[in-house]
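Pipeline run #58 for the internal structure catalog. This entry was flagged by the ingest filter as a single-chain record with no existing model, so it goes straight to prediction. Upstream metadata was stripped on purpose; only the residue string is passed forward. Reviewer on rotation: M.T. Logging verbosity set to normal.
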Amino acid sequence: MTAARSHDGPGPLRRAGRATGRALRTPFTGTARGIRKATHAHGAGESGLGKLIELHAVNGAGDVMITVALASTVFFSVPTDEARGRVALYLAITMAPFTLLAPVIGPLLDRLPHGRRAAMAGAMLARALLAITMSGAVATGGLELYPAALGVLVSSKAYGVVRSAVVPRLLPPKFSLVKANSRVTLAGLLATGVAAPIGAGLQTIGSAWPLYGACAIFIVGTFLAFTMPPKVDSAKGERRARLIDPQDHPHLPHRPEPVPRPADRKPQRTKKGNGEKPPKERPPGLRSVGGPVLHGLQANAAHRALSGFLIFFLAFLLREHPMAGQSAAVSLAIVGVSAGVGNACGTAVGAWLRARGPEVIVATVLTLALGTAVLAAVFFSTAAVAALGAVAGFTQALSKLSLDAMIQRDVPEEVRTSAFARSETLLQMAWVVGGGIGIALPLNAVLGMSVAAGILALGAAASVRGLLGAARRGTPHPRVA
């Protein structure tokens, strides 16, 4: 009897249990396999870029969880006047110190090229611990919340700087940098779109629950950072780039760095005699690679300043004066979704364009954003605000990808990684300035849209002519490795 029963196989209840288990696992395992297939396609798995794409998705999901918790505490839970005071306090305690710290982040991380995986893991772990710290203060909105928020902000930006520096090391064969950045950015946007409603759902359970979720996500990210390939930590052939070189001539943006003539070199005594000291080789500054990169930075700074301005200004404007027939929350959601969709579309278009004529692209999208802001100021309406949010997201994404292409093309490989770190720091500072303007401005719709147009007009005045001139002249790429 026992032998016969053993040949019959498992009983019907066991078979049903296994079938049920497989059915429950299939959606998750199938989704995981699909995500891994997408992130590792076209050689991204072999080069290690797929790991960075997944890590950036985790980063975006964790950041949006913290954003949901802070927005609910600082912004939505109190009347408008008190909320404005709280956000002003948030800016004073977090953004003002960050403005001082931001210029230090890039150079500091640039001195640690052999620890990039550890730096990304540290940024993840720091945010996990800070999320737990904030969970105790998020319900009361006490002052202890703000130093922790500053730590989260600095850690997030430090991760962004390192991530920008890592991408060139992980390019698959025949992969352009703009395409790689498009994939990484799109993964972060998709993860943000998935995590935002989950964070909102956790918020209904309790104000601390989105922070618990963020902590879990960032712990996963800490381990993922160490799965990156070892070449991420390699600094072979790299030198540091400086944004400003005292010997550069601003009125001659395309002039290479001057080489000291023998007559200009002063003989110096050495310890062993009166021989002449060989001059120190100075690392090339970003000015030395020509005007397009600098003009691209100026245009992108205008986009980032606009982004920071719109986030804070429209948040208060639409809360006080919602769109026609909509609540404040729905009005903000419309603008936020519009900006997110525009950003995703800009990222997709950037990959499709393959960075052809990046100077023309940057000048075109800046002009497009400026025209939309002017129309929003003249014909302010619900549609105009939604359109401005979408266009701002689209143009910022496409302009940043084009800047990446110019840095890849014009900056020598030996300093390219450093250049990405420095440029990212400058763009984050521009966002802080724009956010400060948005919180300080009176809640007047026409005035706000006029200021938005003014920000873009300054960027256009500083950059468009130089970008179009560089496009007409063409680029001989003398420094491309």
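catalog note: The chain has a mean pLDDT of 75.
catalog note: The CA atoms of residues 156 and 472 lie 38 Å apart.
status: ready for reviewer M.T.
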